[in-house]
């Protein structure tokens, strides 16, 4: 009944949140004399803190309306071009000049690990000037009726294959964190079947390919608990009146509590500083709002997908052991021969330890040496692997160069394998 109690608590707090919001506007109103005093700003800050810490954050928007190509600003239109019960495929259609040649087509597979695909807004934004970008927009499991059936690891792999088929020849795929395993599996399945639409290149970023290497707190938790423990303690049924009523899920708020507890002191300090900036009225709070509006927006995962991922990736290590199955058939990474492989890691990653993603280079034994590359970005954690200033400056250009080099549509000039600022090999 924990999920039901969570929903009840959220509903019970609604009148208090509404009252706090109204009072905050009153105290912050410039026509109110108290708004210009330390007392008024302190009251407004306290009320905003209460409202923000008790609300449920809805799905954010990408909000990418334009990009810059060369020295020209062009408009961007977001559109759903492929849809299934548990996922939409979004295309960021750029209004590019007719004279511009074809940019590489990139499919970004966003994590299905609690946060929405908008967590990769910065990833999309950095690639848009140089690529035709698509992204998986996974749907909150609590919003999918039981009549739509289940969604498990096999379905995830099938979705990736279907999207690659839909996008067609010479598509490059990027997997950020969790989808590294199913994306590699999808590439292996397609290559073993001699599928002509297998991706031209595969970029795996901060993914748990082999969690036996430099295990983090997340990996150790999975090793210390049995699969039955996870099933008994974190799987709950969606409460009424949600569309997915009675669907067994891993609730997003549990995933969020786990992420928050890993760096609780950092989050407490951030909220304290946010409060002080509100009181000082120095304009800094907007950065805090933007980050936590995204970070605190979470979605539920289907129970079957979550438990299979825990078992196969974190407990049994099936992929690096050569034991991962898809639709009853063993997934063979050695079958991958024509898909170029780029692996990217962060030096300070506390979710996927250094070496876990690079392990893909070891298990994909038949990819030619001139079609593989590994890059370790110094001084970034997990989030910095796919977002932030170092991603835009150091990592995104390498990805673009790599996919251009390995495009099947045209021969591209070679890309240097050692670039100042990081470690490439």
Automatic annotation (TrEMBL):
Signal peptide: none annotated. Residues 206-406 form the PHB de-polymerase C-terminal domain. This is Polyhydroxyalkanoate depolymerase. InterPro entries: AB_hydrolase_fold (IPR029058), PHA/PHB_synthase (IPR051321), PHB_depo_C (IPR009656), PHB_depoly_PhaZ (IPR010915).
């Amino acid at each position: 009944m924990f999920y039901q109690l969570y929903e009840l608590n959220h509903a019970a707090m609604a009148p208090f949140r509404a009252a706090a919001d109204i009072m905050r506007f009153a105290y912050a109103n410039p026509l109110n004399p108290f708004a210009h005093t330390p007392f008024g700003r302190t009251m407004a800050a306290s009320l905003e803190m209460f409202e923000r810490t008790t609300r449920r954050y809805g799905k954010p928007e990408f909000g990418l309306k334009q990009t810059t190509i060369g020295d020209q600003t062009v408009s961007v239109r977001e559109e759903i071009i492929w849809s299934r019960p548990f996922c939409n495929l979004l295309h960021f259609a750029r209004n590019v000049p007719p004279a511009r040649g074809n940019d590489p087509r990139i499919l970004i597979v966003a994590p299905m690990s609690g946060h929405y695909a908008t967590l990769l807004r910065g990833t999309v934004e950095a690639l848009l000037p140089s690529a035709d970008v698509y992204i998986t927009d996974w749907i909150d499991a609590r919003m999918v009726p039981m009549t739509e059936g289940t969604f498990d690891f096999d379905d995830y792999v099938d979705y990736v294959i279907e999207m690659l088929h839909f996008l067609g020849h010479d598509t490059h795929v990027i997997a950020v964190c969790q989808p590294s395993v199913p994306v590699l599996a999808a590439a292996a399945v397609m290559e073993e079947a001699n599928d002509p639409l297998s991706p031209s290149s595969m970029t795996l970023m901060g993914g748990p390919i082999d969690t036996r290497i430099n295990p983090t707190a997340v990996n150790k938790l999975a090793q210390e608990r049995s699969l039955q423990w996870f099933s008994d303690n974190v799987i709950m049924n969606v409460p009424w009146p949600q569309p997915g009523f009675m669907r067994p899920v891993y609730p997003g708020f549990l995933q969020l509590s786990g992420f928050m507890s890993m760096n609780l002191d950092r989050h407490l300090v951030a909220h304290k500083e946010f409060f002080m900036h509100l009181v000082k009225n120095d304009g800094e709070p907007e950065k805090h709002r933007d980050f936590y509006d995204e970070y605190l927006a979470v979605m539920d995962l289907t129970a079957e997908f979550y438990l299979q991922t825990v078992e196969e990736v974190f407990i049994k290590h099936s992929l690096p052991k050569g034991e991962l199955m898809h639709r009853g058939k063993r997934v063979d990474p050695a079958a991958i021969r024509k898909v170029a492989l780029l692996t990217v890691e962060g030096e300070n990653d506390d979710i996927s330890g250094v070496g876990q993603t690079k392990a893909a280079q070891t298990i994909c034994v038949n990819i030619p040496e001139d079609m593989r590359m590994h890059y370790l970005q110094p001084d970034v954690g997990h989030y910095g692997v796919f977002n932030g200033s170092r991603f835009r400056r150091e990592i995104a250009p390498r990805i673009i160069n790599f996919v251009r080099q390995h495009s099947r549509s045209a021969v591209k000039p070679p890309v240097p394998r050692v670039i100042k600022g990081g470690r490439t090999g």
